[in-house]
Design a protein that fits this description.
Blueprint: E1 18-20, H1 22-28, H2 31-44, E2 53-56, E3 65-73, E4 77-85, E5 97-105, E6 111-116, H3 117-136, E7 143-147, H4 156-161, E8 168-172, H5 176-188, E9 193-195, H6 199-205, E10 208-211, E11 230-233, H7 246-251, E12 253-256, H8 259-265, H9 267-274, E13 283-286, H10 287-292, E14 305-308, H11 313-325
Parallel strand pairs: 1-6, 7-8, 7-10, 8-9, 10-11, 11-14, 12-13, 12-14
Antiparallel strand pairs: 2-3, 3-4, 4-5, 5-6
GO biological process, one term: carboxylic acid metabolic process
Protein name: Ornithine cyclodeaminase family protein
Organism: Undibacter mobilis
Amino acid sequence: MEPRRPCRLRYRGPILLRNFSGDDVHAALDYPSLIDALREAFRQGGEPMPVRQAYDVGFAGAPAHLLTMPAWQRGQTLGVKLVTVFPQNAARGLGAVSSLYVLFDGETGVPRAMIDGEALTNRRTAAASALASSYLSRPDSSTLLMVGTGHLAHHLPPAHAAVRPIDKVLVWGRNGERAAALAATLQGKGLAATAVGDLDVAIAQADIVSCATTSTQALVRGRLLRPGTHVDLVGAFTPQMRECDDNTMLRAAVYVDTRAGALKEAGDILQPMAAGLLSADAIRGDLHDLASGAVPGRRDEAEITVFKSVGAAIEDLTAASLLVRA
């Protein structure tokens, strides 16, 4: 198979600014194609991208934040994701997080596309987890446990199923009704999904444990993990959040999406580091290392692996460029 060529959005006269809805994003970005595009983007590497920047824009005593995530390939394409977090929106019947992605032509700087940011984020985040799983989970992994019932949890099982023979999905959430609803949705996508009530029992049954929560307390306990399990930690994205306990990190071979992002934002790594239980050297590799072959992935059938992601701007740029090409 020939390597994927980088996206070159060549100037050819007046450029039409295109708008992509969430439905457009999900329809165009199938997981096999997006996973392959991310693999090539991380393999190539390139210059380091800025870590996500956050700004306090609160007012009248109400908290609010603006986040920016820029990325570029010089002379080819560039883009930025704009994210707002307004926790008080729940009282207005609105979601707390809103986002928009803007893609520009890399030769002229002219805007090319405005894209629904939530759909793009969900899609590329799930694809990045599946990319990591293709190196870190056992090839015969068939049972996936989905911890969490939010929007991203709808996308992670299908993405993992694109790289592994998943024939059973267990769904756990703090709200049993939401877990059952997610299981029904996944069934509609062709996955054999079942809601479960006992998280500890489900962890012990899973080949892949995927977490997408905003928890500040450990949900995955390392002592329950069977040899050969892969743990996919996606939800916690601040130093104060975490989804697994210290024992998980100490038992596992640890990989991240990017070292810079993980060492700034990943509470699952930073908290055991602050306790003196883990060092930065414990991170065996990132997605560039895996995709380029600089470091090996899973080393044997019994190894426990962890992939911790906090999100990388190059993933948004890659997904947006693929969307425009499609």
